[in-house]
Specification:
The protein has helices at about 5, 10-20, 25-40, 40-55, 75-110; strands spanning about 25, 60-65, 65-70. By secondary structure, the protein is of the alpha+beta class. A three-stranded antiparallel β-sheet has the order 1-3-2. About 15% of the residues are buried.
């Protein structure tokens, strides 16, 4: 699974946000978060954590009886880079469209403005 699929799910995004805010969390804490926000049980939360691990978004380590998760920024940096490229591409296109529509609107206003036609002038 790639990073785009991993972050497509709101449960996984909430887990990522929790890790980004606090640095690390146990599987139990992330499962509790998912239960509170989405009403899912621990086995389902574990499947979400597995997806995040397989996508390389998180790493985990074992500390006694607990599995501790940490965010791995590399894949998210790749995602942010892709989003930035899309933003630059579409910003330029949308700015050009705005200029075109403004010109069309101004041209239409000149044509329909009675002050600029022969009928609208006084002799």
């Amino acid at each position: 699974m790639d990073v785009f699929q991993a972050v497509a799910d709101p449960v996984r995004r909430s887990m990522i946000e929790r890790l980004a805010d606090h640095g690390e969390a146990t599987a139990g804490e992330l499962s509790e978060l998912a239960a509170q926000r989405f009403g899912i049980r621990q086995p389902t939360a574990s499947k979400h954590l597995k997806v995040l691990r397989e996508a390389g978004v998180v790493t985990s380590s074992v500390d006694a009886q607990r599995r501790v998760y940490r965010l791995e920024p590399g894949p998210l940096d790749d995602l942010a880079g892709w989003a930035a490229r899309q933003t630059r591409f579409w910003t330029g296109r949308l700015d050009a469209l705005e200029r075109h529509l403004d010109a069309e609107t101004a041209e239409t206003a000149e044509i329909t403005d009675p002050a600029t036609t022969d009928e609208g002038t006084s002799s």
